[in-house]
Amino acid sequence: MQNLSDKRTLLLSVDLDMWYHCRWATGGPKSMWHTTESAIQALYGDAGPARIEKDLAELTDRILELLRSFEFTATFFVLGEIARCYPNVIKRIISEGHEIASHGMHHEDASRLDDAGLRASVGDSKKILEDISGQPVQGFRYPNLVFTKRELAALVDHGFRYDSSTCFSRRMFGKFGVKDRMIQNPYHPDIDRPFCQGESEIWEFPIPVFPVLRLPAGSGIATRLMGVSWSKFALDAALRTGDTLYYFHPFDLHRVKGLGRTSLNAYFFLQNAGAPFERQLTRLFRYYAKRGNVMCIRDWLRDRERSS
Ligand SMILES: [Zn+2]
Question: Is residue 1 included in any domain, yes or no?
Fold first, then answer.
C-alpha cells in the first residue's frame, strides 16, 4: 500500500452478539428459529443459558486481550438483550477503555418492526447501555445492516451522534442494493436519502465493499470466507479515499460444535471460525498497526473535534 498516510484511520468495531443472532439462525424472514431462546434450546438444551454466559465471557476476554496487545481501542455495538443478561461483560469492556454503542434491543431486521417497535428498540437499548456504563451512548448499528431513512430518523430522534449501518453492496439476501453512488468513508448523510452525502449533523460510517465485486468486505465474515489478503485489498482501497471501518463478532473466534450440521447456511457462514480466524485477525491487526491509526469511533470523533 503506497498512499496511506499517517492520518488514515481504520475504525475498529465489534458487534457483541452470538451465533444464534446470525440472520440464518434468528431475526430474519427466513431464519431457522423464531427466538433466541429456541435456538439456544435446540443446540444446548437446558444447559444453554449457562453455556452462553460462559462462551460470551471467554470470547470477550479473548477479544480484549488481543486489542490490549495491539493497544487498539474498539467500538462494541452491544445488543440490549445481551447487556441486560450479562452486564458484567459490558463493564469489563468499559474498564479497558473501549466504547459501548447500541446494536438495538434484539437482533432482528428493523424492517420487521413497526414504528413503535423501532423506537422502543432504539430507545430501550440506549437506556440499558447508559445505565450499565454510566456513559452516554453515541452510536448505533442496526442488526443485519437493514437500514433505510426511517431507521436513520429514529436515531436522530433519540439523539445519536452517529450510525454505522450502511453498506454499498450489491443486492443480496434480500437486502442492500442501493442505487446511489458508492461511499466508502465517513460522511454526513442526507436525512431523506441516507445513502447520499447531505447536510445533517449525524455521522454515517459505512461498511466498505470489495472494489468492482461490490460485496460486503469490512467484516470478520468476509475475512473468513474470502481470506485475509482480500480483506486487506478492500480496506486499502477504501483507505485511499479516507478513513474506513472493520468489524467482527465474538462468534468469529468460536468454533461452535454441532452447528455446521444444522443447516447449509450455518456451515457456510461459520467457515473458518475459531482459531483460523483468530490468526487472520492477528495478521490484519499487525498489518494496520504498522500502517495507520486504529481506533474506536468515539476516539475518532474526539480527535476530529479537537482539530476543528
Ligand atoms: Zn449483529
Answer: no
Q: Quote the CA–CA distance of 14 and 77 in Å, as a whole number.
A: 6
CA–centroid distance, residue 18 to ligand 1 (Å): 8
Strands (E) in the chain, as ranges, are: 9-16, 75-78, 99-102, 139-140, 162-163, 203-204, 244-248, 293-295
Residue 260 has a pLDDT of: 67
C-alpha dihedral sign at 288, 290, 296, 300? negative
Work out the pLDDT band at 5, boundaries 50, 70, 90: very low
Taking the centre of ligand 1 as the mean of its atom positions, its distance from the CA of residue 308, in whole angstroms, is 33
DSSP 190: P
pLDDT band at residue 154 under the 50/70/90 scheme: very high
- Is 153 within the bounds of a domain? yes
Q: Quick one: cell of 50?
A: 449457562
Number of structural domains (the chain) is: 1
Burial environment of residue 192 by CB neighbours within 10 A (0 to 12, 13 to 18, 19 or more): exposed
CA of 306 from ligand 1 middle (Å) equals 31
- Which residues are 187's β-sheet partners? 204
Distance 108 CA to ligand 1 centre (A): 9
Q: What is the CB neighbour count within 10 angstroms for residue 102?
A: 29
The answer to the question of residue 70 being in a domain is: yes
Domain that holds residue 277: 9-307
CATH number of the domain enclosing 225:
3.20.20.370
Looking at every residue in the chain, the average pLDDT score rounds to 92
- 78-100: pLDDT as tens digits: 999 999 999 999 999 999 999 99
Distance 258 CA to ligand 1 centre (A): 21
Burial (CB < 10 A; 0-12, 13-18, 19+), residue 30, is exposed
Checking if the pLDDT of 308 tops 80, the result is: no
Whether residue 2 lies inside any domain: the answer is no
- For residue 9, how far is its CA from the centre of ligand 1 (angstroms)? 23
In this prediction the pTM is 0.94
